Amino acid sequence: DLEGGVCRTMHQYQGHTAPVTSIAYDNSGDFLLTASRDYTVRLWSTESTTLMTIFNQHEGPVSSVKYSHDNSYIVSTSHDGYIRLFDSRVTNLSTMLTLPVAQTLPINTVDIHPTDINELLITSEDSVQLYDIRKPTHAAEEAYFDGHASMTCAKYCRFGNDQDGGVIICGDSGGRVYVLDAMPTLDTCKRMPLGSLMKK
């Protein structure tokens, strides 16, 4: 809340024992998810700021957390090399699915396809990867960036009436930003100049 041009603290959620790395609200705004380097994901009530539950199954710092667009599941990623999905409709955050990443590389971020909640986009070391959660035993589709710095973030971006997911924008630890025309799969991935976004 802004009061006299200065931010005023409305609520404070305290409980993590290491830096917070990611936050996410559900669609209703009733619940807040926080992820931390303390290896946990925590679920809070936004009305009472009460801690509802702690998920502590990751074996490394949790790097990213997100609600699916329909609030049906929660996804988290970690430097332990695993993607974990939880049923957000139960309070104990029981694991629905665990997806290992090849060679258990640290996973930096996760995003969910804007029109298909079954498709996940993750960044891990030198690659951007797509996972279909309906096919957990299948290898990910990958777009590699050999010889470049670690891929630190990636996000789906859709423009106007684009219904196929638009483009993927990702960045690396070397300060570079890539725009990928990767629909319907990363098999057709190609790099695009940033200026091409204006044409979407």
What is the helical fraction, as a range of percent?
under 10%
Q: What gross morphology would you assign? A: globular
Number of DSSP helices? 0
Largest sheet: 4 strands, antiparallel
Which strands sit side by side, in order, in the main sheet? 3-4-5-6
Q: Report Rg.
A: 17 Å
User: Strand-residue fraction?
Assistant: 35-45%
What string gives the helices and strands in order? EEEEEEEEEEEEEEEEEE
Describe the structure.
The chain has 200 residues and is mainly beta. It has strands at 2-3, 6-7, 20-25, 31-36, 41-45, 51-55, 62-67, 73-78, 82-87, 95-100, 109-112, 119-124, 127-132, 141-144, 151-157, 167-172, 177-180, 191-192. The strands form 5 sheets. The chain has a 4-stranded antiparallel sheet, with no helix packed on it.
Helices and strands, with pairings:
Elements: E1 2-3, E2 6-7, E3 20-25, E4 31-36, E5 41-45, E6 51-55, E7 62-67, E8 73-78, E9 82-87, E10 95-100, E11 109-112, E12 119-124, E13 127-132, E14 141-144, E15 151-157, E16 167-172, E17 177-180, E18 191-192
Name a few traits of the molecule:
four-stranded antiparallel beta sheet, globular, 44% strand, 200 residues, 0% helix
Structure at a glance:
This protein has 200 residues and is mainly beta.
